Amino acid sequence: MSGGSVRIERIRRGAPLQFEVDGVQVTAFEGEHIAAALLVSGRMVLRRSQKLGEPRGLFCGIGLCFECLVQVEGMGTVLACQTPVREGMRVSITGARPTGASP
Amino acid sequence: MKDRRIVVVGGGPAGIAAGLEAALAGAQVTLIEERQDLGGQYYKQMPSGWTVGARSRLDRQYEEGRELIAQLRRSGVEVLTSTLVWSIFQDHTLALTDGTAVWQCPYAKLILATGAGELPVALPGWTLPGVLTGGGAQSLATGQGVLVGRRILLAGVGPFQLRVAAQLIGAGAGIVAILDAANTWSTARSAARALAHWKQVRQALDYFAIVRRAGVRIFRGHLPTRIFGDGRVERVVASRVDDEWRPLPGTEVGFDVDAVCLTFGFVPSVELARLAGCRLDYRPDAGGWFVWHEANQATSVPDVLVAGEAGGVEGAAVALEEGRLAGLEAARQLGFVEGRRYRRRRGEIEQALTRARRPARILRDLTTIRPGLFELITDDTIVCRCEDVRAGDVFAAAKRWEPGLRGVKLWTRAGMGMCQSRICGHLMSGLIARSKRIPIDSVPLDTPRPPVKPVPLAAMAAPRDGGGPVLGAWHERKA
Amino acid sequence: MSTILEAEVVVIGAGAVGNSIAYHLAKRGKAVVIVDRRAPAAEASGANFGLVWVHSKEPWYYMELSLISARLYPPLVAELDIDVELRQDGGLVLCMTDEEYEKGEAMIARQRQSPLFRGRMLSAREVHELQPGITPEIVGASWSPDDGDLNPIAYTLALARACERWGVRILPGTTVTDIERTDGRVTAVMTDRGRIATPIVVNAAGVQAPKIGEMVGHPLPVEPSRGQELITESAPPLLRYPMSGIRQMKTTGQFILGFTDEWVGFDKRTTMAGMTKIAANAVRKVPAVRHLRVIRSWAGLRPMPKDGLPLIGQLREVPGFYVAVGHSGITLSPMYGRALSELICDGTTALPIEPYHPCRFDPEGRIPERRTTEAAAAREEKR
Asked: What is the mean pLDDT of residues C289-313?
């Protein structure tokens, strides 16, 4: 299902750029962080929670809650809300793996 | 060490003001900001090179921030951005990282202006994608030019969420409704008292007018009680609540939405202060645990001062003045300013501070959280999002041998995840207090553990000697 | 002072050692009370590396004691109702230089004095076949199939819960103020909450054990050794076996990295020097961890006896006063439980605990001089 996130119109943004999300090309603008770019591309679910495998998305938006962890090639796991998107960046939001329960 | 440097941690209103004031007095100042840009959450700036087309009154805050940052740039204050202060291991030394290395930074005086985070409120369904803090949605709009949804429901208390609403509407968002937990009567009573502060009232009225013009309905005395959705938020059920914010049966009302913003207030960021050994104090209307300080912003630890929300949530206007006061005090203690010059300046700041505090007090009345809010949590509601721990498990653990956060942590792993209990800490304290029928401030906190935020091993493995900042330079590190 | 409880045995200390002893005693029908100034797993048992370690423990008879304890683990864990993440498939100590490898070889040769020993040296190639993710820089490793790891917090809490199931009373937040004796024999434990009448006391108080010993005129030669540790965020499974200083948790995929060995009294803070040293060690040996973030550091205090070996047994001049103290409390806890319950209930044990009598440091102690080991001498030097 497509998300309801949209870019606000009256802003002049940075230069357009292309990055890759699980093999799919997505357009974004220089200065945008990964979370914003993913949201407007209709991707609300950024990861699955560790034990229950629940869908999770952007929550605090200011780098405190660690819900928006995504995998970026060459960078490991990063906070999507704090990491600027770059031309050619390869992002994975399916890399998160649920693990077994522990006490 | 004969270092006479003042180090300010945090580049929001309080930190910028502290840095400016101390530099004005002639002190050597280093300001360290974790994020790429200065301004903090209040003066949230757009990425460099971006511009907003039409200006409105709402952009004033952004402009004010830009002006302050420009002043700081001219002031000779050394600024380190994209630099995290991740611990204080010993007296007068901070541990820093830029994500590639770690190094130590000495200080003669330390001003903690670490700000506040948003108060997370847990209720069934709050972990669904599309549920954000109001600040998160606002940040996305003002910092990134992105609206979180097309059919947004706002729920919270007080004027801050009106501001979020006005900003979102101004940006073209569709707001389904605004739920304000405070009832009409208490709002009216506080509003009457607020009339004495025309500037703030006018600002609030501005927001209100925008909301009204957009035809958004405000449901006073309402709280969301459950959020539904398959993989993402789709529907919210709310109820009318009583004065203690407990839902009244038979008053349910439903909303179809694609995003929910929860705006219930702020929690002081005290992690670094705790590592420094600063005494905390607890007051619900200050956001819970905050850094105790004297009238001159001195904390219980020598040479450590606090400014802004970390020392109790009172809003940006107060934070600015506290920052100035802390900057002035630190400079005086180092002998940069004294006598009449000092007294005159201190008098000016204190007057401004008193003025700024009056509306802040009323705002507090308007926004004080009532206990019913945390009773929305059911046994199967997740409270620790990192470790997927449900409230029922916390209740069970609280009955075990060790009361307090540590015991619950050991049993459930709640608070052991990436966010280092920033989100769940106060929720768990609340649950423990509830199950033991004790006041929340008598629930023992857990020992603070460095790093205050996660640090890459590669960086930690690369300690840099003498890699401290170079005075007089402006280092904007790009992440 | 009023008597609040009566017990057949009072165990002081609710760590893994104290809980194991109480559990074994309760299963033998004893009425046991555990007192702790804090709570189960509040100190070293909740702040250690989580190894169940055998092959590099010296001297060889101490390795044997560790091995006996390790073998007591599976049946004990089977009686617990929490998954304690026990793995006992083997473990390694990496050798980064020729010198380290030679030291390893010499250690393995010494351990072979015990017929039970199954450890050996591995070549670099063997290490890479056994354990993925290791730097190509290594020279080799020492290895034994008897080593393993577990979640020490889950284990200690599970033991405490098992104790309660068997009727043990656990009194957290209770500080021992004195040991009451009548005609030399123990008759009660005095606490800040009242008197607990008992003929038998077990001092399993970890780093606080000397303080308890002093109450009967017998300060024990035990000092705190600080061990700092780091934990990272979760990562996909990489390491198959735990190693000394680097292990990956079974359920969460987090790496636990250690450790330091510092003599700084009771200071439990972590330090810049300690953390960077641990991080550098991990990144050097397992380069893939470099992207992982450290989310927390902590330090625990090992109760380190003067000669590095545990103190197990009854004080000769204080009938009713038993001691069960030493580092490696997790590895040795099943053994402590078995040994102390047999000593208390039967007056003797088949476990080989003679070298560890707490009176061995006394001038007229009966432990032969040759038992003082090279490892202990090295430790002395470090101090």
From this structure: 95
